Amino acid sequence: MNIKVKGYANMRKYTAHLPSDGDMEIPEGTKVCDVLKQLKVPPELKKLIIVNGHHKPPHHILKPGDLLVFFPPLEGG
After folding, report:
1. How far is CA 72 from the centre of its chain?
2. Which residues of the chain have pLDDT under 50?
3. Hey, where are the domains in the chain?
4. Mind giving me the DSSP string for 7-58?
5. Entry pTM
6. Residue 73 φ/ψ, nearest 5 degrees
């Protein structure tokens, strides 16, 4: 199945090898954590995970056409 993946800020380096639209082919039943592992994102790295505009946990199962976005926690004041 096909999904789109986008990494932002310092996480962009993990998706740089993907096509510009972020297309990625994965098997059905794949979890967010499986995709991050495939992209070689260190599991201990703090990140926010968004699927189709909603915060999701790493064990969330992806569906065809999903948009997975991840980025570092935001800080500021």
Report:
1. 12
2. none
3. 2-71
4. E-GGGGGGTTTS-TT-EEE--TT-BHHHHHHHTT--TTS--EEEETTEE--T
5. 0.92
6. -55, 145
| pLDDT at position 74 | 79
| The length of the chain, given as a count of residues | 77
Q: How far is Cα of residue 37 from the mean position of the Cα atoms in its chain? A: 10
* Distance separating alpha carbons of residues 76 and 18, to the nearest angstrom: 30
Q: Quick: pLDDT tens for 42-60.
A: 999 999 999 999 999 999 9
What pLDDT, on a 0 to 100 scale, did the predictor assign at position 3? 98
State residue 15 phi and psi, 5-degree precision: -115, 5
Nearest to 50 by CA among 22, 70, 34, 72: 70
The CATH superfamily holding the domain 2-71 is: Beta-grasp domain (3.10.20.30)
